[in-house]
Specification:
Helix content is 29%, strand content 23%. The protein contains 17 helices and 27 strands. Strands 4-3-12-11-13-14-15-16-17 form a nine-stranded mixed sheet, with helices on both faces.
């Protein structure tokens, strides 16, 4: 105890930096978590979080379909979760620890499905419904599901599973959500004991390098996330603009249920549809990617809609420039914009802004969330660095993933033995504990931030290199005002080849999901590399931005 006190005295109360350990500590008040040994699912914790407040949500709305206006109250939601959980226990043959693959666009059924599966200890594994068959096959190989939940539009991309595939847009699924436990069994089912350290979700991410990986999140990770939620605000209406197969969609789902908030869901995103939803449902809070913030600043369409209900916007997924923030605040003076930072590997959280004063720190992504620690590590020497110095951000805390499913090598390279997650992002803390993201060490391309998934350059490079007329290739992120970043390919053609830019883009487009398509191509004589064979992407980025590409 004396040792802890001594260390605490060396923590700078302004920055959270401990000079003794070289560790940054959260400046937020710590939040107690239930003992790990108590069986507790993330779904049960979210509902208990709601019950332990002074709220009585009753018939208050929890889910609204932005396009149709169809909605569920909290009581209807909980009733459907219980009914579906019971049905799945009895008829599907699912067991605790099994994995369910989910391939569906956003709908009101998805949050119900998530909570039902989590409550019976089944691991959820949602994937992008726009994925190709080869991408889906790789994801299935990672997560090894025994059952799938899809729609009539996506089921054709799936193989057969031991326990079959359930169509979420079928009358049968609607019946599953309405069948009561007493109708099915004649008595209440015994609740399934789910350990907090059990796997809860396998979310697909490109990790720090290479092809897509399956991020294993535990119930404990989600419980720690829920515990950090602020005081319930039952009148809050959230507009969810990102898909539910991403970690942020899952985060918003558990938040809305736990805090008795209303969540407006968009099956497919379009900008004007977002504006219509804000006006129609009196949205008070939403999350935006940087490209959407730019669109809000520049679009003339915005003026056609009543956005007066909107009070707060959180921006994440990629750094947002100070100039754009200033222009946003100028156009929407009554709307507070805050930035945040998180990865799939950190359950979608890490740092965020809280309150109006922190929101004024333009360019920052806020301070560490509660119960979190961080290091800034020199990428070369691996020495920890004090405030004001740039290095790779490492994070540690109860929301950090268990690892990558079936990939011990990737897990070992990303999580060190002491539990530190190496984010691959170049960052620094200022002397007031605010985190700033400088650049991406991990080289992933984020097209429209969390509208869609991250794009690994290596995956596209491998496809390019499989083309018979391409000798070598490299893919870089190219800045784009609408998309944030788009994939740009530098390719080396075979001598005498008449391959065109359009043919290269079409070649890739046929093999990947739409958001992964290459959108710029430059032909060059050779790809710059280190002596060990690694691509010097920064040289290519500088070349692209200067317009000095050596075209053939």
């Amino acid at each position: 105890m004396m040792k802890e006190t001594s260390l605490n005295l060396s923590i700078d109360p302004k920055s959270g930096f401990c000079s003794s350990t070289q560790i940054y500590h959260s400046l937020r008040p710590p939040v107690p978590l239930p003992p790990e040994t108590i069986p507790f699912s993330a779904a049960a914790h979210a509902l208990s979080f709601l019950r332990n407040t002074s709220l009585s949500p009753g018939n208050t709305t929890v889910l609204i379909d932005a396009a149709t206006g169809h909605r569920f109250s909290h009581s209807q939601f909980i009733g459907r979760v219980k009914a579906l959980s019971a049905y799945l226990q009895i008829t599907s043959g699912l067991s605790r620890g099994d994995t369910a693959f989910i391939l569906s666009p956003t709908s009101l059924q998805i949050p119900i499905l998530y909570f039902s599966l989590l409550s019976i200890g089944v691991v959820i594994s949602p994937a992008n419904p726009a994925s190709t068959k080869s991408e889906i096959s790789h994801q299935i190989e990672i997560s090894k599901p025994v059952i799938a939940f899809a729609t009539s539009a996506t089921v054709g991309n799936l193989p057969s599973f031991r326990h079959g595939t359930v169509l979420l847009d079928s009358p049968d699924f609607e019946s599953m959500m309405r069948t009561t436990t007493t109708t099915t069994l004649g008595s209440e089912l015994e609740p399934i004991e789910v350990d907090q350290l059990d796997s809860a979700a396998i979310m697909y991410s490109s990790g720090t390098t290479g092809q897509v990986k399956g991020v294993v999140l535990t119930h404990r990770n989600l419980i720690a996330l829920i515990a950090g939620f602020t005081a319930p605000r039952p009148e809050t209406v959230l507009l969810v603009t990102m898909p539910m197969f991403l970690i942020y969609g899952l985060l918003m789902c558990v938040r809305a249920v736990a805090l008795a908030e209303t969540m407006v869901l968009m099956e497919s995103f379009d900008f004007e549809g977002m504006l219509r939803a804000i006006e129609a449902y009196k949205v008070s809070f939403m999350s935006l990617s940087p490209p959407l913030v730019v669109a809000m600043v520049k679009s003339e369409v915005v003026g056609k809609y009543d956005l007066s209900s909107l009070h707060g916007v959180v921006c994440g997924g990629a750094p947002l420039g100070k100039e754009i923030i200033e222009r946003f605040v100028s156009r929407f003076p009554n709307l507070e914009i805050q930035q945040g930072y998180g990865l799939t590997e950190s359950t979608g959280a890490g740092a965020r802004m809280v309150g109006s004063e922190e929101a004024k720190r333009y360019g920052s992504v806020g301070r560490l969330v509660m119960n979190m620690e961080a290091k800034i590590v020199d990428p070369k020497s691996k020495d920890p660095l004090p405030p004001g110095q740039q290095g790779e951000l490492w994070l540690r805390g109860p929301i950090i993933m268990r690892g990558y499913a079936g990939d011990a090598k990737a897990t070992a390279s990303t999580l060190d033995p002491e539990g530190w997650l190496k984010t691959g992002d170049l960052c620094y803390f200022d002397f007031d504990g605010f985190l700033f993201i400088v650049d991406r060490l991990k080289e992933l391309i984020k097209y429209k931030a969390y509208q869609l998934s991250q794009i690994p350059p290596a995956e596209l490079e491998q496809l390019l290199q499989s083309h018979p007329e391409i000798i070598d290739a490299a893919v870089i992120p190219y800045p784009d005002e609408e998309g944030g970043q788009i994939p740009m390919a530098f390719t080396v053609k075979k001598p005498g080849s008449n391959l065109t830019e359009a043919q290269v883009m079409d070649f890739i487009a046929k093999q990947v999901a739409p958001y992964k398509k290459i959108r710029r191509v430059t032909f060059i004589n050779s790809i710059p590399k280190t002596t060990s064979g690694k691509i010097l992407r920064r040289e290519l980025v500088n070349c692209a931005l200067s317009g000095a590409s050596d075209k053939q």
